[in-house]
């Protein structure tokens, strides 16, 4: 039977399912941490029962090979009407059989016979995993139907954090007791620990009886051909094999790290240090796992899995590990592993569920686990054989000692990283680029954004929500994109406006359509915030709606926001609208705003009146706005703004740096316009230029603005004459200048207009100090911006 699609659970049922799933997960981890090839189990098998590394490797390989029985689950669940009954029955047998591990410990304690225990474990444990693998696919299909995909990653990683708290407590207590009670009681303690683990695993399965199983809305009959459908999905097969290769590579050395740490011939650390390492790594896991779950839900599973593969880099610490350094290095290894390991181990399962279609999911899960098991099965076997073969290998270098263990580990690390590359080639369908996610995760601001998510999503206090929106930074705001977009419909106007501003800062194209829909909102203040946000995103899909808003509104503030946004976005349609609005602007304020937008678009035709309007400006803000528009023509748009904004002291400091930068450029390079050749100058000529610039600065500082403008205008004219020679005297010089470059042509036009101003109106209006000062700064700005 195909168990899809399914009826959704009610909120009450979903809440119960989540709580029970977390509880059963906690009990399962009590079982798994001691009754499967984990540190305590591996130490028990090798260091106490006396099994060889090859024997442990063989055991792990058998467990992996038992994944073949996943294929049986396709047919078992295919003909079954429900998934839960068979899963519970098979898993109960699986957990009961692991009591053989406790029996091996008790037998060794009572008789001293360890050989019987090794044989019992080698038979019972692989057999138990046969039952587990024959039923596991049903559980994965079951929980995939239980929890919606948009919350699945966050839930499972939150679940993982809670489970690992139990992991920490249980593992640390077990390892501590093993260190406190040694000698003849060691096997009895191991027996008690394994018994607790097995019984917890049994209770875990029983509690699953109370977790609801969603019913299918339609019961599709099972077709045996469905069993091989996943094999036709090359993308899914590539992913499964890549994960199998990664686990194969990890198993080359993973099962043997704990025995190496406590081996008297290795690091010789106490058993308690296994507990300390576990506590540190799992507490780090607890902190980071929910974060990785959120990243998965927001940006896809694949980038997280690829990043997670690099947890093996934490193993670099083993190359510096010995009986003197372990107290420093083991904690560092544990922290580094805990940061990235959940991204891999939790991420691969979530990515598998994303790649497996809802229909026939059991077949996909079964083939995934089968392929992973087959590919990875030889890892521990090969690792154990290599360790045995290299047992006599030792090399000393720079006071460090390297053994066969380190050789195998290096190979393991390189192979895992190679596996990450293969996984990065898999197509998940909705994931962001791996480089994008790495860049965001590496930015410390991501933690601040992550901390704001809860306030954005669930906060009942509008003040907290508004503050969270203000805290969103451009570089990492993508993480909260869905929550911010949802706030565009908040009942509070202030929150809607802050949401629009945040989307503008983030600049994501995903926000364009939601913002366009809100551009027709009845609240003008909100429309202004939306228009400005669209301008910052600079997506041309917004041009048409912005033009419509510009022509339909009577609000001057909204018109200004729309015209500025069009200037930011650019393109022929935007340029035409800006030019038309400039010619028909109803007042000086809107005309200045349109001139600023036109200058950023390089529309000289629409800005030819900038200088006259600057000179005729009735107030300081209008004059400065026209000056900014001229600055956009002379250099990078927006770069002139700092010299005419802010406090008087801050503006003076920026102007001082502008003059110093120009002096430095004059001293170190030669002025050059595009393809015009450099002119070699004498030191005297260079010093004369510097002296002139300093005189201009001194005139400005003394309030002698007219003298400063005359001095810098003459300097600029002489400079052009030196570079271009007789062409400067040509009547067509301005036209030629525009052919060279829009910035150069604009400056030549400006210089000629300024000369006319100096020859006439400036003499009659010498009291207009700000106008003269702005013109001087514009010439200095052009020279500094274009001096190469």
UniProtKB/TrEMBL annotation:
Q: Per its record, what are the GO molecular function terms?
A: transmembrane transporter activity
Q: Which InterPro entries match?
A: ARM-like, ARM-type_fold, MFS, MFS_trans_sf, PBS_lyase_HEAT, Sugar_transport-like
Membrane: present as a keyword of the record?
Answer: yes
Pfam name, any one:
MFS_1
Q: Which UniProt keywords apply?
A: Membrane, Transmembrane, Transmembrane helix
Q: Which residues cross the membrane?
A: 20-41, 53-80, 92-110, 116-140, 161-181, 187-211, 236-253, 273-292, 304-321, 327-345, 365-387, 399-423
Domain of life from the UniProt record: Bacteria
What's this protein's name?
MFS transporter
State the species of origin.
Gracilinema caldarium
């Amino acid at each position: 039977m195909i168990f899809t699609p399914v009826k959704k659970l009610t909120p009450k049922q979903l809440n119960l399912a989540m709580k029970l799933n977390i509880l059963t997960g906690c009990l399962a981890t009590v079982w798994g941490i001691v009754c499967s090839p984990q540190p305590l189990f591996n130490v028990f098998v090798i260091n106490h029962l006396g099994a060889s590394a090859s024997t442990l490797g063989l055991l792990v390989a058998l467990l992996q090979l038992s994944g073949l029985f996943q294929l049986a689950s396709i047919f078992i669940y295919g003909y079954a009407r429900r998934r839960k009954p068979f899963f519970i029955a098979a898993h109960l047998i699986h957990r009961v059989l692991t009591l053989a591990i406790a029996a091996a410990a008790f037998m060794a304690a009572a008789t001293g016979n360890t050989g019987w225990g090794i044989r019992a474990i080698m038979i019972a444990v692989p057999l138990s995993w046969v039952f587990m693998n024959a039923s596991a696919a049903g559980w994965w299909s079951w929980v995939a139907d239980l929890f919606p995909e948009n919350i699945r990653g966050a839930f499972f990683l939150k679940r993982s954090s809670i489970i690992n708290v139990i992991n920490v407590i249980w593992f640390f207590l077990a390892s501590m007791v093993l260190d406190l009670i040694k000698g003849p009681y060691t096997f009895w303690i191991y027996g008690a620990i394994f018994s607790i683990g097995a019984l917890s695993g049994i209770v875990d399965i029983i509690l699953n009886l109370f977790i609801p199983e969603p019913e299918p809305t339609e019961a599709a009959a099972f077709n045996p051909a469905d069993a091989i459908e996943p094999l036709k999905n090359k993308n899914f097969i590539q992913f499964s094999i890549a994960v199998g290769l990664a686990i194969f590579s990890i198993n080359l050395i993973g099962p043997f790290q704990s025995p190496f740490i406590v081996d008297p011939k290795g690091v010789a650390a106490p058993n308690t240090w296994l507990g300390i390492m576990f506590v540190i790594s799992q507490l780090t896991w607890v902190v980071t796992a929910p974060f990785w779950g959120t990243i998965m839900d927001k940006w896809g599973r694949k980038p997280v899995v690829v990043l997670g593969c690099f947890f093996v880099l934490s193993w670099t610490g083993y190359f510096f590990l010995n009986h003197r350094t372990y107290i420093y290095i083991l904690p560092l290894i544990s922290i580094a592993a805990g940061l990235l390991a959940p991204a891999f181990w939790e991420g691969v399962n979530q990515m598998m569920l994303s790649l497996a279609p809802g229909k026939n999911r059991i077949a996909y899960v079964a083939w995934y686990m089968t392929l992973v098991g087959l590919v990875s099965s030889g890892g521990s076997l090969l690792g154990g054989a290599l360790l045995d073969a290299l047992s006599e290998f030792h090399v000393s270098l720079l006071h460090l000692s390297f053994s066969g263990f380190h050789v195998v580990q290096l190979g393991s690390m390189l192979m895992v990283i190679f596996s990450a590359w293969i996984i990065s080639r898999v197509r998940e369908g909705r994931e962001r680029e791996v480089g994008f996610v790495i860049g965001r995760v590496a930015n410390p601001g991501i933690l601040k954004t992550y901390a704001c998510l809860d306030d954005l999503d669930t906060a009942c206090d509008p003040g907290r929500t508004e503050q969270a929106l203000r805290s969103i930074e451009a570089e990492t705001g993508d993480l909260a994109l869905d929550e911010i977009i949802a706030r565009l419909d908040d009942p509070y106007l202030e929150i809607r406006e802050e949401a629009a501003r945040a989307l503008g800062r983030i600049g994501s194209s995903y926000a364009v359509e939601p913002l366009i829909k809100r551009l027709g909102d009845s609240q003008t203040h909100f429309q202004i915030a939306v228009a400005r946000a669209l301008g910052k995103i600079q997506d041309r899909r917004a041009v048409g709606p912005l033009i419509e808003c510009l022509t339909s509104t009577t609000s001057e503030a909204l018109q200004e926001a729309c015209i500025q946004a069009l200037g930011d976005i650019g393109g022929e349609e935007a340029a035409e609208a800006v030019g038309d609005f400039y010619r028909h602007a109803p007042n000086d304020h809107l005309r200045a705003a349109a001139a600023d937008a036109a200058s950023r678009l390089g529309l000289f035709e629409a800005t030819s009146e900038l200088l006259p309007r600057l000179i005729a400006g009735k107030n300081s803000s209008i004059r400065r706005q026209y000056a900014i528009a001229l600055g956009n023509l002379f250099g990078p748009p927006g770069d002139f703004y700092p010299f005419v904004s802010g406090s008087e002291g801050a503006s003076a400091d920026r102007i001082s740096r502008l003059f110093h930068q120009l002096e430095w450029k004059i001293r170190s390079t030669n002025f050059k316009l595009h393809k015009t050749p450099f002119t070699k100058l004498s030191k005297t000529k260079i010093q004369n230029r510097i002296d002139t610039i300093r005189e201009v600065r001194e005139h400005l500082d003394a309030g002698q603005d007219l003298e400063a403008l005359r001095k810098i205008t003459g300097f600029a004219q002489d400079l052009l004459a030196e570079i271009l020679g007789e062409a400067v005297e040509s009547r067509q010089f301005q036209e030629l200048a525009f052919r060279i470059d829009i910035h150069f042509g604009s400056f030549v036009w400006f210089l000629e207009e300024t000369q006319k101003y100096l020859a006439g109106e400036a003499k009659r209006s010498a009291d207009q100090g700000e106008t003269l000062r702005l013109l001087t700064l514009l010439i200095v700005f052009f020279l500094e911006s274009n001096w190469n």
